[in-house]
């Protein structure tokens, strides 16, 4: 799974029975949101696939993908063509 900021993402396989029982996971694949107080809710998606879970996690308030470089524009480049634009003649098309 992708790494996110402001949320911990843990992949649990159905073969990890002790962890599955402790966390209460019943369906695979699925995504559960666990809160510090011990409460949890299942994150519903349209299609049970990893990509849809990624989009659903990115849609949560305050959650962003980590590792993405931010693009900073330092200066705006102007048009540097030497010849002026000619009018378009659609009869040649």
From TrEMBL:
Please report the stretch or stretches of sequence annotated as the Sulfhydryl oxidase Trx-like domain.
1-63
Enumerate the Pfam families for this protein: QSOX_Trx1 (PF18108)
InterPro entries assigned to the protein according to its UniProt record, in alphabetical order: QSOX_Trx1
The molecule here is called Quiescin Q6 sulfhydryl oxidase 1
